[in-house]
Amino acid sequence: MRRKVSILSFMLFVASFAWGSAASVYIAQSSAGSNNGTSCANAYAYTFFNSSSNWGSGSTQIGPGSTVHLCGTFTAAAGADSYLQFQESGTSGNPITLLWESGAIVQSPYFSSAHGGIDLNGETYITLNGGINGIVQNTANGTGRTYQQASKLVDDVGSNTIIENLSMINVYVHTNGDSNGGDSIGLYARDPSNLHVGPNNTFTQADLGINFIWDGGTSNLVIDGNHFAECNQDIEAGTANGSTTSFTNMTVSNNTATNWANWDDAGNDYHHNFFHPFTNTPNSSLVGTLLIYNNRAIGDMGNHSTSMLFLENNNGSSGGTMGTWYIFNNVFSKTNANAPSSSGIIAPMSDNGYAVNNTIIDAGGTGSNAYPCFDSYGTGWTFKNNVDIGCGSYIQIQGTTATANNNDYYGAASPQWIWHSSYVSTLSAWQTASGQDASAISTNPNLTSGYVPNAGSPVIGAGTNLTSLGITALNVDAAGNARPSSGAWDMGAFSSGSVRTPGAPINLQAVPR
């Protein structure tokens, strides 16, 4: 005889089952109160998180859909490795979330470089959420500090992971002249797919803020809405050495970055960049949708920088391949004049990309201290609608072909344009030598301190309409204002009349604790 099950009983059963796979667990440095993990006042000790027996589908276990709350300050021993280590994965639609409660900090004098402080252990469908003010940090690692060690804060990131609202700071607090600090990394990820870093993460004082490596066959990296300060390289993304490797789809957008000079040293061991993707092995490739937009990198690049954007491909004519990069709506401003560089502020070695509607500024410099605003080693690049202020030279074309037009060039040292072996110092000579830039201008763009054209600026309506490129994010400016669907555009990252969306302070400093 079949038993009748009431709708209420069935709903209670379903609710009970759902709860069994979605526990909410609170942990602290040490156990508290009733030691049942139901609140910060009754938290489990952090070792609960590291025991595989506490992971599963039970009502008190950590499993798909669970949120693990971090309470208070966690202080690990110097050199701690896998201090908090994930034991299982979440599932699609039911990630496992590690959530920093207000004021929560995970710290060590220095975390190990083997697996870091927060070890995701390659598990998938994970979310790290710093909440209001969550921090992971080293407290005694850096120049003149107790330790000078390689270190990682967050390590072994798996696929389908989101990292947001988290400060990963003071990995190695570096002072100009120190040769130590290499391999100090805020966030390390090797070969995950569908990784989203942002928004609202902060990275300070690291050799590499984000270090992303791929081994092949993976896709979809988004680094969006983060803040970087005083890192040697803010974002590095490249292939593992060895066999055939490929990665598809990469977006770096809406980030702010500042100040790299503290990583200078006498041995020239650190070459500073905001973003440095590379494909330096013969069988490696980076393809698909490749976007760099709405970023603001502003500050002192130091004496040992490579560039703000260094797209490194075909290194020594033996590297791999990159697809088509679209670089737009960015503000890149080098504020120091006494800095030689091995390349330009934007320096692509790959072919057939687009650098359009950017505002590129250099405080100056002549001779060996002179940067090009745009230095193309690759062939087939399109350079349009950019505002170029200062720079040792505005544009240097080393590749076979290039397309340039509707740019404003103002205030560079001489020589101001370089077309292959031709060095020219007037716009008309540049137009003759290159056959490009028929609609370019060379007048003061008259921008506000927020890089928006003032009324009467010559860049207003002087750009070409680029809707035909089919890049949706390009059809609005860096403040989110729509550009005309037909008719002329303004040059530069911001359109006239824009109200610039407030960003993070560009003079963000590390806060030693």
Q: What's this entry about, in short?
A:
5% of the residues lie in helices and 35% in strands. The chain is mainly β. The strands form three sheets. The chain has a 25-stranded parallel β-sheet that branches. The chain has a nine-stranded parallel β-sheet with strand order 5-8-10-12-15-18-21-24-28.
Can you walk through the features of this model?
This protein is mainly beta and 513 residues long. Helices cover 5% and strands 35% of the residues. It has a 25-stranded parallel β-sheet that branches. Strands 5-8-10-12-15-18-21-24-28 form a nine-stranded parallel β-sheet. The chain has a four-stranded mixed β-sheet with strand order 31-34-37-38, covered by helices on one side. β37 and β38 form a beta hairpin. It is elongated.
Produce the secondary structure layout:
Elements: H1 7-20, E1 24-28, E2 44-45, H2 47-50, E3 67-71, E4 73-75, E5 84-85, E6 96-100, E7 105-108, E8 118-119, E9 126-138, E10 151-155, E11 161-169, E12 184-190, E13 195-197, E14 202-204, E15 208-214, E16 218-224, E17 227-229, E18 233-239, E19 245-253, E20 256-258, E21 273-279, E22 284-293, E23 296-299, E24 309-313, E25 321-322, E26 325-328, E27 331-334, E28 346-348, E29 354-356, E30 359-362, E31 372-376, E32 381-384, E33 387-389, E34 393-397, E35 402-405, E36 408-410, E37 417-419, E38 422-424, H3 427-434
Parallel strand pairs: 1-2, 1-3, 3-6, 4-7, 5-8, 6-9, 7-9, 8-10, 9-11, 10-12, 11-13, 11-14, 12-15, 13-16, 14-17, 15-18, 16-19, 17-20, 18-21, 19-22, 20-23, 21-24, 22-25, 22-26, 23-27, 24-28, 26-29, 27-30, 29-32, 30-33, 31-34, 32-35, 33-36, 34-37
Antiparallel strand pairs: 37-38
